[in-house]
Amino acid sequence: KQSDVPKNKETHTGSLIEQLTTEKYECMVCCEVVRIVAPVWSCQNCYHVFHLNCIKKWARSPASQAEDGNSGWRCPACQNASTQVPKIYTCFCGKVNNPEWNRNEIPHSCGELCGKKRQGLDCPHLCNILCHPGPCPSCPAFVTKTCECGQTSHSVRCGQSTKIHCSNVCGNTLNCGKHSCTQVCHTGKCSPCQLTVRQVCYCGSNFKEVLCGTQEEFSDGFGNFSCQNICGKKLNCGRHNCTQVCHPQPCPLCPRLPQVVYRCPCGQTPLSKLLELGCVERKICTDPIPSCGKTCGKPLSCGSYEFVHTCESLCHEGDCKPCTHTSNIYCRCGFKKKVSGFLFFVAAITFMCDKRCNKKRSCGRHKCNEVCCVDTEHKCSFVCGRKLNCGLHKCEEPCHRGSCQTCWQTSFDELTCYCGESVIYPPVPCGTQPPECKKTCTRPHDCNHPVYHSCHSEEKCPPCTYLTQKWCMGKHEKTVFLTILLPPGSLNLHLYTLFSSFICCHKCNVMFFFFRIAARSIATKLTDLQLGDSVEISRLITKKEMKQARLQCDEECLALQRNRRLAEALEIDDNSDPFNIRSSGPKYSDLLKEDARKDLKFVSDIEKEMRMLVEAVNKGKNPKKSHCYPPMNRDHRRIIHELAQVYGIESVSYDNEPKRNVVITAVKGKSICPSNTLTSILDKEMHSRPPPPIPHYKQTDKSSGSSGLSKPLKEEPVIDYFDVQD
Questions:
Q1: Sign, CA torsion 598/602/607/608
Q2: Alpha helices in 570-670 (DSSP H)
Q3: Residue 434 CB burial class (10 angstroms; 0-12, 13-18, ≥19)
Q4: For residue 134, how many C-alpha atoms fall within 13 Å in the half-sphere facing its CB?
Q5: Nearest to 48, CA basis, from 99, 97, 82
Q6: How does DSSP classify residue 436?
Q7: What is the per-residue pLDDT across 684-697, written as a single tens digit (0 to 9) for each?
Q8: Which spans does this entry mark as compositional bias, Low complexity (predicted)?
Q9: Which residues, in sequence order, are bridge partners of residue 410?
Q10: What is the spatial distance between Cα 611 and Cα 674, in angstroms, rounded to a whole number?
Q11: Cβ contacts of residue 623 below 8 Å, gap of 6+?
Q12: How far apart (Å, rounded) are the C-alpha atoms in residues 142 and 158?
């Protein structure tokens, strides 16, 4: 009832006075009634009233702190932040501490005039009613206000927020300072002048149409804007033209005037010294400037930051000739690029190479892929987009490493079980499962038997576990059955067929045969059935029923028997090879043998794995069987691919470096185990070679003082390059 905000201030204040007087107002913190003698505190933003002790506890609790942590605590009603915690019980106007309750006055008030300034208004008058809760009412005084254009005045109530408009034309001067506003009395500033005028550039060669009053501050008395072309006006000398870009008046002095030029063109020698050496004195700007004859030496615009190129011509007028040197210009990422020196402004240009950055971004998932990258942090600019733990929403934070945070969305609706007995009250985090309920399931069922399972959140109920009796098809005997109703297409559909039909051992036998299953044994396996597991029923079937359930021979079976009898008549063994197909040994390339000698243990392990894979697929029921090797280098992957061709195994490489790996797949009837493996062939080659020669020792004379044998002869030892060890 306190959430309904009154339509005006008077109604709001009156509602608070009535509820506090009748003790029907509740504190939002403790949800208890605010008594007329209890110390209270009132929020100056929303005017809600709380117990003073309750608001003190709330202000000190962590839940009341502002989000930034520096703005103080928040009001429980309007969330307005305050820095100071209330400590003293005061009246509503704040003049009296610990006001005493008077039966003839408003509870928690001092009984004096309020005297507070009205908030949000330009009213200079103070509140003239007694101390009260809630906002102060509107000011009853009347004042004289002028209309928006200032031509008429009216008497209105003080603090009235409505603007006064008359029917006269505004007539105020517009922004251009030349024209007047033609709109009727309006609020705010007048609109800019909408008349168009023609403006000329500073050099007088271009014109454009603009709104009146725009770019007036850039006027030089002749033009208002720059056309960005060369000025071209005659200079004060009357012989040369201005070479600057269109600019305000006036143009600068001629740069070749005698009173302006004091040095030679290269700037190394003053003209006074050249005049002493016999040079002709200049009279006008067209006279040539004397040359000093030295090397110009002016820095050119090419070159690099380490080495500056200079002009090698003699002192001259005008621009320098192009540079004949070459320099190394570096792009911003450090890639070196050689640029010819006659390209002007090369040093001022920021070069970017076409090399793309292959480093991982901060998320570890994406590559930087920036051209000529100079970034050191490589922050990822993508959105994460992975599903959160709730499974409903996606992570909206920038792409990051590690797991995403829990879903921040919360529901303020109650989460109940299907029957509504168990409830989780809000706030409920997103992804929360419905609560467990111990009541009996109330969902509609396909059968009319009693329900023994509890309430659940899954849409489908578990199978019915009620025991029933059913006659055989010939009405000879009755047997107890466990009724299990399973949906079509499930893995236990065969059990459903067995349960739905029962045939005894009398004359009820028809062309179909149905197994008799003891209901008591199946009941013990009910838990496995509910979990979706299969049940072994071969132990529950008699030998007689197993004999009758034997499959009859079809065309394929007859063909196999005929081939077997033909092989016995021709005395052909199944393991023999009459066409010498299997006796021809496998062919291993020389390159494969050479690689195998370098790492014999690796090849031996690969061949063992391939033989085990081929034997497993030939003995098993599956037509294919695969094996995945760990990531390895290119040479090892090539050995696996070549060996797979010999064994008749399919091999494919996946993923990118350095995690590229090989997956092999053996196919029944296609993959074989060769009689001679590559490892056995290499072992035979190593054992067939002669052993290395034994070093010879020279026998010395006993009289020489040496005993026994001397040092071995300096002969090169014989190395067996085929004896490779790990």
A1: positive
A2: 590-598, 600-619, 634-647
A3: middle
A4: 22
A5: 82
A6: P
A7: 777 766 655 544 44
A8: 702-711
A9: 429
A10: 9
A11: 617, 667, 668
A12: 5
Q: What is the pLDDT of residues 65-81, one digit of tens each?
A: 877 666 788 898 888 88
φ/ψ of 700, rounded to 5, equals -110, 165
The average confidence (pLDDT) of the chain is 77
The pTM of the whole model exceeds 0.90: no
What are the tens digits of pLDDT across the range 443-497?
A: 998 888 888 889 998 888 888 877 777 777 666 676 665 555 444 434 333 343 3
- Helical H segments across 318-405, by residue range: none
What amino acid is encoded at 567 in this protein?
A
Residues whose CB falls within 8 Å of the CB of residue 39, separated by 6 or more in sequence, listed in order: 51, 52, 53, 89, 98
- E-strand ranges in 298-454 read 326-330, 336-340, 410-411, 415-416, 423-424, 428-429
CATH topology classification for 590-682: Ribosomal Protein S8; Chain: A, domain 1 (3.30.1370)
Angle between helices 634-647 and 590-598 (to 10 degrees): 130
600-619 vs 590-598: helix crossing angle, rounded to 10: 110
Sign of the alpha-carbon dihedral angle for 460, 461, 463, 464: negative
Alpha carbon distance 494, 509 (integer Å): 19
The helix/strand/coil state of 686 is: helix
Q: DSSP character for 413?
A: S
pLDDT at 154 over 60: yes
Neighbours of 231 (CB within 10 A): 22
What gap in Å lies between CA 12 and CA 136, rounded to an integer?
10
Alpha helices in 31-174 (DSSP H): 52-60
CB 338 within 8 A of CB 326: yes
First and final C-alpha spacing in the chain: 86
Please provide the DSSP assignment of 464-520 as one string: P--EEEEE-TTSS-EEEEE-----TT-TTHHHHHHHH----SSTT--SS------HH
Given a contact cutoff of 8 angstroms between Cβ atoms, the answer to whether 136 and 115 are in contact is no
Q: Where along the chain do the CATH 3.30.1370.50 domains lie? A: 590-682
Cβ neighbours of 212 (radius 10 Å): 17
90 — alpha (psi -120 to 50), left (phi > 0) or beta? Answer: beta
Q: Is 270 helix (H, G, I), strand (E, B) or coil?
A: strand
* Spatial distance between the Cα atoms of 394 and 484, rounded to a whole number of angstroms: 41
Of 632, 677, 668, nearest in space to 649 by CA? 668
Cis bond upstream, residue 250 (ω within 30):
yes
- List CB contacts of 539: < 8 A, sequence separation 6 or more: none
Residues 70-94 as b/e (b if ≥16 CB within 10 A, e otherwise) read eebbbbbbeeebbeeebeebbbbbe
Please name the amino acid found at residue 562: R
The alpha carbon of residue 224 and the mean position of all alpha carbons in its chain are separated, in whole angstroms, by 51
Q: Which of 73-77, 331-335, 402-406 has the lowest mean pLDDT?
A: 331-335
d(CA 371, CA 374): 9
Q: What angle do CA 100, 104, 105 make, to 5 degrees?
A: 55
Nearest to 364, CA basis, from 393, 399, 388 = 399
Tokens linked to 6: 């009154």
Across 603-622, average pLDDT: 88
Q: 């002095």: which residue's tokens?
A: 253
Give the residue among 341, 348, 378 at the shortest CA–CA distance from 362. Answer: 378
> Mind listing the pLDDT tens digit for each residue in 512-541?
334 444 444 555 555 454 444 455 555 555
